[in-house]
Amino acid sequence: QVKLVESGGGLVQTGGSLRLSCAASGDTSCISAMGWYRQAPGKERDVVAGISSSGGTHYADSVKGRFAISRDNAKNTLYLQMNSLKPEDTAVYYCNADCATIVQGVGVVDPYWGQGTQVTVSS
User: Fold this and answer.
1) What are the contacts of 41-45 at 24+ separation with CB within 8 A?
2) CA–CA gap between residue 31 and residue 17 (Å, rounded)
3) What is the pLDDT of residue 18?
4) Which of 46, 56, 86, 89 has the most neighbouring CB atoms within 10 Å?
């Protein structure tokens, strides 16, 4: 079992910055890839950014050049630096971690989610 707790959300004006954190606890040794997702009211949850266990990153087109994902494996913490925020970035942001295990010789990946943190960007 992995527990994820996000923090760092809040209200910011257009053009401002926020840094989200996601602290992982429990069986963190199984965590491979991690990522940030967001869900705006009335919309589906979409990927924002992801980072592999080796540090490779990918971003949604809408946040490229503005957001940066990083992880500190020693602290079991995932980060999302968000700059040049826009009103359309307003959403609940969720942390995700994939827990990779071997069950009867077969690789299994279980996703874990945090409770979410609200980010509101005012115009």
Assistant:
1) 43/91, 45/94
2) 28
3) 98
4) 89
Q: CB under 8 Å to 7, separation ≥6 — which residues?
A: 20, 21, 22, 23, 117
Structure tokens at 67: 């957001």
User: For residue 29, what are the CA distances in angstroms to 9, 18, 26, 67, 100?
Assistant: 27, 28, 9, 27, 9
Strand partners, 78: 22, 71
Phi (first) and psi of residue 42, to 5 degrees:
75, 5
Which residues of the chain are under the pLDDT cut of 70? none
Question: What are the start-end ranges of the E strands in the chain?
Answer: 2-7, 10-13, 18-26, 31-39, 46-51, 57-59, 67-72, 77-82, 91-103, 106-113, 117-122
Backbone angles phi, psi at 110, to 5 degrees: -110, 125
**For residue 97, which of 109, 111, 107, 108 has the smallest C-alpha distance?**
111
Amino acid at 100: A
Q: Are 82 and 20 in contact (CB under 8 A)?
A: yes
